[in-house]
Amino acid sequence: MLYQAYQFQDDLIAPLRDLARRLQIFSATAFWEPVGSMGRHFTAALEMISRFEITHERPDFAITSAMIGNRMAPVTVETVLDMPFGTLLRFAAETDAPRPRVLVVAPLSGHFATLLRGTVQTLLRDHDVYITDWANARDVPLSAGRFGMDDYVDYIIRFLEEIGPGAHILAVCQPCVQALAAVAVMSEERHPATPRTMTLMAGPIDPRESPTKVNELAVSKSLAWFENSLIAAVPWRYRGAGRRVYPGFLQLVAFMSMNMERHQDAHRKLYDHLAKGETAEAGKIKNFYDEYFAVLDLTEEFYIETIERVFQKAELATGDLTHHGRKVDPGQIRNTALLTVEGGRDDICALGQTSAAHDLCRGLRPHLKRHHLQANVGHYGVFNGRRWEGEIYPVVRNMILAME
Prior knowledge:
Helix content: 40-55%
Pfam families: PHB_depo_C
Strand content: 15-25%
Organism: Rhizobium indigoferae
Low-confidence stretches: none
Keywords: Plasmid
Distance between the termini: 53 Å
InterPro entries: AB_hydrolase_fold, PHA/PHB_synthase, PHB_depo_C, PHB_depoly_PhaZ
Number of strands: 14
Shape: globular
Domain PHB de-polymerase C-terminal: 202-401
């Protein structure tokens, strides 16, 4: 009844949000416009009420152009391959010059792939960029079947096949494990679409290294606890009715609880900016939370298998990870250059967890391995923001360029 209870509460609040939006429209007309300090506070309160909402649909990437060389080039988003649990998207930039093809593997951890909008925008300067656009499990009918960790690896391999030989792969956060597994499987099979480089950014290759609160929670409870406390059936109004999922709204609550004071402070600042008419400052905060409050559901099997196989058993690090019953051996990777990136202040995936990939990829010669530690950035700063653009991205670009 967990999901139904959430939906019932949201349905109760919806009329209040709608009323606040209508009053905002009315207050902006010539008939009546609040003036003075009291009026500005009134309209600010209306907007805060209207924003009290979690959305469950992917926002638009809103990437329409990119700086390529010394000019802004138009960019269009193309659907390359559409599958039930994920779509392969391409950001096609208008340029005649051949560019390295990069598959960005987005996390499937409660937020949509648009969380990597800044990552994609930066990569577009020098690359032909593709991304895994994961579906909201509540919108996938039961007839589509299950989607677990092995299926996730299958999707990565299938997407790389569609892109073709000579591509590169960049995984952010949670899918670093599946990306490494996919490259290992493809390398062992001598698959022609095995990527030339593999960049793993802030991912739990070995979560036993410097455990964070996220790691500690995963190992402190039994699988039965996760199944009984966090898994719910999708309500009947949605296409995925009856599918058992880990709801995105629960993941959002978990993320926010880690830094609740920061989120409360951000919303106090938002209210103040709105009341003072500081639209530019308010817009920055609103844009962030529009993205942050857009959540997707994960299938039960993927979530539970991730808890068990990635965090509780650390199967990749211990050499016990399998793909459809076959042992995954990163030592089979011999020609795919490896770059790992970690943030010095990452409180989700701490130091050592991602760089553990270097020991696992024992078949790689030293000149095909590189690690980059970015001081003074947290988890989000590894793949977005000023230091990603100015300091981390050049390292990624140079690794890819060296293997072209």
